[in-house]
Amino acid sequence: MHVLYDTRTVHPLDRYEYARAGAASELAPVAIRGRTPGDLLAVMSVARIGEFVIEAVTWAADSEIAAHRTGRLIRACDPECYRIFLSVNGGVRMEQAGIRASFGARDIALYDLSRPWQTTHTTGPTPMRVVMLTFPRASVPISRATVAPLMGTVMPRKLPGRSLIARFLIGLTETAGAFDHAGAGLADLLRECAVGLIRQRLGQPDGITPHTRRMLHMACVNGIIRRHLGDPALDPARIAEAANISPRYLHKLFQDSELTPMQLLKRLRLEECLRCLTNPALATTPVKDIIAAHGYLRPDQFAHDFKQLFGVSAKQLRRTAS
Length: 322
Prior knowledge:
This protein is an alpha+beta fold.
């Protein structure tokens, strides 16, 4: 993800004005108001996948700060989009169209970027984290009037598929390299999630379909594997536990895939080792340290697997790269 702004890069006395300028440059600009905090952490990272934009925000301050999406800002910049707002750990209040919502951990709500809103970032010892998925209203094949009553309302926790989508979106923002090779497949899945969630909330058919659920589970498993490549003890049982599915269902997910879960784990480990071995910044890092950081305990096994996959030894590759 691309870092849009990060207050840790500037002097503490400049952080508030820096954050206000960053908020004014967002996809849907907002005005930051409130007493200047003595301490402020504000970080926003952004990734674009086709017509979708994913934003991850971390915020902590020792005084309450409000973000306003005003009519004036809307007239100046209106992307004509809906936004799925996911609070990772609570600590935020929002209001749109007279509806107020106080968010708990993993709560999800839907907002219209063409209508004013106000967000209040509360204080506390734990930084607030938010993930936002923004997409054109035109991509939703449901009339705006039909969707309007959902604006600002928190999705019921028992809504089928809600928790799975939350886990998927959070995993995307926490997985290094998740967007490096994102193509039409990820954009299609995001579209199925966004439209399916709205249909599900409206009680319409074809909400979160079995196909969407399977793709979400696969994406979550892939993210878990990528985030734990350095764990030599990672196995199907631990992957299934982390994905909140049974080992039997894990293997069922992969029954039509070219690779088993463990073969995928090995492939991703080797590909990450390849990336590190050809990175000039890591040219002096011993090969044994690189492979150990990616879950290989036996250098001989790594050497065999690496040459089998890439047709060249790690040492030969490094010499060629240098």
